[in-house]
Write a structure and sequence with these properties.
single chain; 319 residues; alpha/beta; TIM Barrel; nine-stranded parallel beta sheet; 40% helix; 13% strand; globular; binds S-adenosylmethionine; binds 6-(5-methyl-2-OXO-imidazolidin-4-yl)-hexanoic acid
Length: 319
């Protein structure tokens, strides 16, 4: 069943108590445990990216102070993954600042993935555009999820990114799907888009067939040196509404309260969990910018009485 932008707009326009009730119903129906998934990020290849994404500190063309580095070695990645596992993380997400990986990059990343997987963590990678043959290699290496965000509605995309087309993103998502890897796909809120454009992004995500298993909702982190450095973002309640609508329109997905949590109060984060968010990025760093301290996150979840997701991996956990 497809969802129209108008239907999403109508959800945005609901009184907050009605919107939250609809979201809470879907949340309870599909996730009766009410647990929160913890996903830890690691930038395995930082900076020097040829793309021009207006929000991104890793684009080579902007002066953001992020230095270009080479792909990390397996041992260093494994050390970070082991730490994440010890801290209770469920999923290890590896990010690379590439437009698209080359054959030799895929070989190296495949090796990294199989070793991280062997630690008993779910694996996720975000490496830019992906050809089908590369997706297949990653799938065979044990990749559980591929993150590739649509980021905005199609009609806003060109205002933020000119070095690729929206259709390129959709093609990669299709290539990933076809190899059996689960899709992690969401967007960024607060880049200067209208509510109508936010609604359009949510409708596009919900109408992917099937919709993504993981939906990261990022709030823009304005980074000095990027074209969006002075962008004001959205009111916190608009962000909460967006999370609630993601829950209603993609009821079985893990909706992740993603980048931008450092700018959100504990109370707004709590409202996001009540609106149906059931995943967070967990660890002191996102890719290049900060994230709340993991001890503070555990304290917040504890204060709210929220359980964290139990690891169900078939692999033996690290001692
Ligand atoms: N290069 C790959 C790509 O673009 O798909 C993977 C890495 S890229 C950094 C992954 C995602 O990070 C982007 O799609 C975007 O959603 C998010 N992101 C990057 N910079 C951000 C920022 N300043 N604020 C919020 N989200 C951001
Ligand atoms: C996603 O949706 N958000 C993450 C992850 N997927 C790769 C990245 C956020 C990056 C924020 C800016 C930075 O730390 O560089
Ligand atoms: Fe490169 Fe990804 Fe950053 Fe865009 S978002 S500049 S593709 S690392």
């Amino acid at each position: 069943m497809t969802i129209s932008t108008t239907e999403v707009i109508n959800l945005y326009d609901l009184p907050i108590n009605e919107l939250m009730r609809l979201a809470a119903n879907e949340h309870y129906k599909n996730f009766p445990e009410g647990d929160v998934e913890l996903a830890t990020l690691l930038s395995i290849k930082t900076g020097g990216c040829p793309e021009d994404c207006g929000y991104c500190p890793q684009a080579a063309r902007y002066n953001t102070g992020v230095k270009a580095e080479k792909l990390m070695g397996v041992e260093d990645v494994l050390a970070a993954a082991t730490q994440a596992k010890k801290a209770g993380s469920n999923r290890f997400c590896m990010g690379a600042a590439w437009r698209e990986p080359k054959d030799r990059d895929i070989e190296k990343v495949a090796k990294i993935i199989s070793e991280v997987k062997a630690l008993g963590l779910e694996t996720c990678a975000t490496l830019g555009m992906l050809e089908k043959k590369h997706a297949k290699t990653l799938s065979e290496a044990g990749l559980d999820f591929y993150n590739h965000n649509l980021d905005s509605s199609e009609d806003f995309y060109g205002q933020v990114i000119t070095t690729r087309q929206y259709q390129d993103r959709l093609n990669t998502i299709e290539n990933v799907r076809e190899t059996g890897i689960s899709v992690c796909c969401g967007g960024i809120i607060g880049m200067g888009e209208s509510r109508h454009q936010r609604a359009k992004l949510l409708a596009t995500l919900a109408n992917l067939a099937p919709y993504p298993e993981s939906v990261p909702i990022n709030h823009l982190v304005p980074v000095e040196g990027t074209p969006l450095e002075n962008q004001k973002g959205v009111e916190p309640m608009e962000f909460v509404r967006t999370i609630a609508i993601a829950r209603i329109t993609m009821p079985k997905a893990r909706v992740r309260l993603s980048a931008g949590r450092k700018q959100l109060s504990k109370e707004v984060q709590a409202m996001c969990f009540m609106a149906g968010a059931n995943s967070i990025f967990y660890g002191d760093k996102l890719l290049t910018t900060g994230n709340p301290d993991y001890k503070d996150d555990l304290a917040l979840l504890n204060e709210l009485g929220l359980k964290t997701k139990v690891v169900t991996s078939r692999h033996s956990p690290v001692q």
